[in-house]
Amino acid sequence: MFEQVLKSRRSIRRYLTDPVQDDVLNKLLEAATWAPSAHNKQPWRFAVLQKAFHKENLANAMGNKLRVDRTNDGDDPEIIERDVAKSIQLIVGSPIVIVVCLTMSDMDVYVDGHRSSAELMMAVQSTAMAVQNLLLSAHEMGLGACWRCAPLFCTKTVIDTLKLPQNWYPQALVTLGYPDEDGKTPSRFSLSKVTKWL
Fold first, then answer.
1. Taking a C-beta distance cutoff of 8 angstroms, is the pair 177, 18 a contact?
2. Nearest-CA neighbor of 25 among 100, 134, 166?
3. Cα–Cα distance between 173 and 181 in angstroms, integer?
4. What is the DSSP secondary structure assignment for residue 151, as one 8-state letter?
5. Looking at the domain assignment, is residue 87 inside a domain?
6. What is the rounded distance in angstroms from the CA atom of residue 66 to the CA atom of residue 53?
7. Distance (Å, whole) CA 37 – CA 125
8. Is the pLDDT of residue 52 over 90?
9. So what's the pLDDT on residue 162?
10. What residues are paired with 49 via a beta bridge?
11. In total, how many domains does the chain have?
12. Tens digit of pLDDT for each residue in 98-126?
C-alpha cells in the first residue's frame, strides 16, 4: 500500500475549484511535522495561503522579481512574459498555497563557518523531509500537490510580501488542491546508476 502511494504520486499543477477544508489541511500539516529532524529541532514553519488576496499578492511580487532577474540575464522579453504569466497562474490558480520555511532559531550555533554551514544544511534537509511527508499525505488523501523551489530565488520578496517573521527563510512553495489532471508519469534512473554496493 505504501509503495503504491510512493509510486503513484505525481506533480499536479491544475486543480478543481473545490475548497480544501481546514481539518484536511491540519491533518496534512501534522503529517509534515512527523518528519525526522536534526537534533529533533523541527525547524520547519508553514505559511498557509487560503485567501485569493494573499495568493495574488505573492504571485505578482514573485512574478515581478522573476521578470527583473530574467531581464538582467538578457532573456527574450516575450519568453520572460510567458514564463511570468505561467508562474503567476500556478499560484493564483491553486486553492491552497503553502510556503514552507525554515528557522535556525533553535538549531545549534557554532563559531566556525564549516559547522555553521553543516547546521544550516541539516535544517534544510529536515524541512525537505517535512515537505515529502506533506506531498505523500496529500496524495494519499486524494489531493494533488506540486513542490516548487521558486522562493529560494526571492526569499526577501516572499518574507516582505507575506509579512513573515524575519527568521523564517522560505524554502519551497507547495500548491495544493483536488486534482484536475492526472499528472505525468516521471522517469526514474535505474538502481545501478545511483547505487554503489561495498
1. yes
2. 134
3. 19
4. G
5. yes
6. 20
7. 8
8. yes
9. 99
10. 97
11. 1
12. 999 999 999 999 999 999 999 999 999 99
C-alpha cell at 111: 563559531
Q: Has this prediction a pTM greater than 0.85?
A: yes
Q: Which tens digits make up the pLDDT trace of 128-161? A: 999 999 999 999 999 999 999 999 999 999 999 9
Structural domain including 68 reads 2-179
| Residue 114: all three cell numbers together | 564549516
Question: What are the φ and ψ backbone dihedral angles of 57, each rounded to 5 degrees?
Answer: -60, -45
| HSE-CB of 196 using CA atoms within 13 angstroms | 1
Assess contact for 98 and 47: CB atoms under 8 A: yes
Angstrom distance (rounded) from CA 80 to CA 70:
7
Distance in angstroms (rounded) separating the CA atoms of residues 132 and 124: 12
Whether 65 is covered by a domain: the verdict is: yes
Quick one: cell of 174?
507547495
CATH number at 174 reads: 3.40.109.10
Contact predicate 77/71, CB 8 Å = yes
The grid coordinates listed for 162 are: 507575506
Confidence at 1, pLDDT banded by 50, 70, 90: confident
Short-list 137, 153, 130, 135, CA closest to 64:
153
- Distances in Å between the Cα of 161 and the Cα atoms of 8, 119, 153, 181 are 35, 27, 14, 30
Residues 6 or more apart in contact with residue 182 via CB below 8 angstroms: 10
Q: Is residue 184 in a domain?
A: no
Instruction: Answer yes or no: is 190 within a domain.
Output: no
182-29-125-135 Cα dihedral, nearest 10 degrees: -10
